[in-house]
Protein: Aminotransferase-like plant mobile domain-containing protein
Organism: Trifolium subterraneum
Amino acid sequence: MNNGKKINEFTLPKSELYWFWNVVKASGLQPLLKTNYNNLDWGLLTAFTERWQPETDTFHLPIGEVTITLDDVSCLLHIPITGKMLNHLGTSCTTEEGEDMCREYLNFPRAKCRAEFKKMKGAHNGFPMLEKIYAANLRRALKAEEEEEEVVQNYRDCTIRAFLLYLIGGTIFTNKSMQYVDVIFLTYLQDLSLVNTWNWGASGLAYLYNYLEKATKPRCGNHGGFGGGGASEKYRHRDPICAKYLPMKCYKYPDERRTTLDRMEVDEVTFRPYEDHRHIRPFEDICWYSGWIMCGSAMICPYLPERVLRQFGHVQSIPRHPDESAKAGLNRFTIDEAFANYMVENYVTEEMRGPRAKNEPANLEVLIEEDNVADKQDVFKICRTVIEEVNGKFDGELTLEEAREVLKKVVRDLEPVATYSLPVKRKRDSGEGSKKKKKKKKKKKKKKKKSGED
């Protein structure tokens, strides 16, 4: 199901309305405005969904396993992939709780809210009604500038909440009805200053995984969750990669796409498609997290990056069975803490690692350290850059504060060199090496003599 057209045609306020756009930008959800398609390739989606394995949350293809990772979410959508997971109970709230939230956070009268819930058969707001709520609050906010500050602020907050609820309901939390948004998501929009502390990326990925699992069941006709064509002329490098292409209308049935996937070769696959986008969205260590992600208590899915190491630039090893628990170590941390301790301590103790199994997958902390070393191994280049910057500052007169800032920057730039530079192993100066060579030569001579005698 695709709500992209609804988002693209949504009437947005003017860019000069700073009280609106500053909060939307700070929420971390503004990039979702640029990630919507009017058309989707239904046949391609169906062909991929047929190859989805709910036990591992991966697509099983002739070339091996691949999946949608947190790194994909970060680069394609530019939304947060760290923070607290959405932790509401079930998939929806009761109608009484929904009425209370709509009255308090959307300025939506209880009587109208009850009628809307009855029409939608649950605690849901239809997209047309939610757009009306947004427009009504926006008009009141613009007219109420001479009233008390609390009244004006309430209208503004209700306008932003209605917009953000419409935005996430039409993108990362698209359900199969395509008609409404669950009011339960208002729980995370109560305090607008804390919206960016929620892990929208991982929760949206869990939501998609859940609908992919449902789509593999018999008699399932629709598919929910966020969503080849020509390149978009409006695309800029700072935009989400999802906005780079515009899918065209394609054949509805998956026959042709199935054949393409069945004939796929490894050399036809780009496992790391975001390398030219890293200056905009750097790789985050949290993408190595292995465990469970959730979107409420009813949608809890496994996230197993060790099954798709090629997508992280490493050789694929034999992963653990999906029914087995992860070994003691980094995998036992929560998604918020998984790499916080690693980055602070910069090493992992033996107690944290625990006993290693024979078939244990690739050591994640080692892979992370290898990546960091690889990214910062050109020590001379870093030093030359620092020298050039310092020499450039010497051309003019520096105040004491400016000099302090220069020194701080030098320390920041040289810190990775001291952290990740590899020690060079030197050969011993003793004559041990020459003695070994002499012994080898004597053995060779003895062998020749024996062969001659024979």
About this structure: The first strand starts at residue 52 and ends at 53. Residues 3-351 form one domain. The radius of gyration is 28 Å. The chain has one domain: 3-351.
